[in-house]
Amino acid sequence: MKFISFSRSGDAGTRIGVEMADGVLDLTAAGGKGQIHPPPGSRLEDAIRSPGGLRALRASVLGLASDVIEDNSVAAGAIRYLAPVTRPEKIIGTGLNYHDHAEEFGMDEPDEPILFAMWANTITGPGDPIVIPSISDRIDYEAELAVVIGRKARHVPAGRAEDFIAGYTIVNDVTARDLQMKDSQWVRGKSFDAALPIGPVLVTPDALGDGDGLDIRLRINGTTLQTSNTRHMIFKAPELVAFVSEGLTLEPGDIIATGTPGGVGFKRRPPVFLKPGDTVEIELEGIGTLRNPVTAESDTAATARGS
Asked: 85, 195, 243, 290: least surrounded by Cβ within 10 Å?
């Protein structure tokens, strides 16, 4: 099932929905009419954190009568997709997790996952701009499958990881390569504002299983620059959930970005970096397409924030 966060035309409020073949089922509206129990509220991440999480909400949706579905259906053109999760407690990135990505960096494949941290300020939604910060001119793209945690998880065996996953989505782990290489750690290079586009939907494990075997590709202005399949990951999604949960407790709504395949701009000759006016699209099998324009941080905005 494909859950979404969205807003309706003329209404700035956030809603929860399910993407259907011919539109969107507005679960927030159905909850307000008492047609779905318990009412799911208006934020998808709150539903993830509620008792029973998305499993319970999915069961409620499957039990809806056809007239209720019809009564709460909205045309796809009348909505705006939003980031499915905006306030995770933790965002955990994974480095060098595709065979060809390790190769293009000239590095040995890791024996264990390489992890790094990001923050919620990085999150931006489908259609929202990737903003190039004024302190960098080497902004790179990274197409990735992301795991959103659905239940509190500690010491989870890989074989049970699916039980702790709310769903899968797409992230673009946008990276300031000059800052990443200059600093002794990756905080500035990975966590500037609007550096992590996410969406457009959150697909539950009943549809995608363990997230293995999914085609992934990235295009800039229609030109394909990354193409791979999640089967080429060194550590698959269940292994990452298990590894991370060995040392810290994962909470509902936490995000694990599973790493990017080869073809990043930094390692191309000549290098390819994002520039204002670009459009970046990441297509991931079974999930959809995450599309974002690229803009530059204005000097005026930078001055205003510093005043």
From this structure: 243
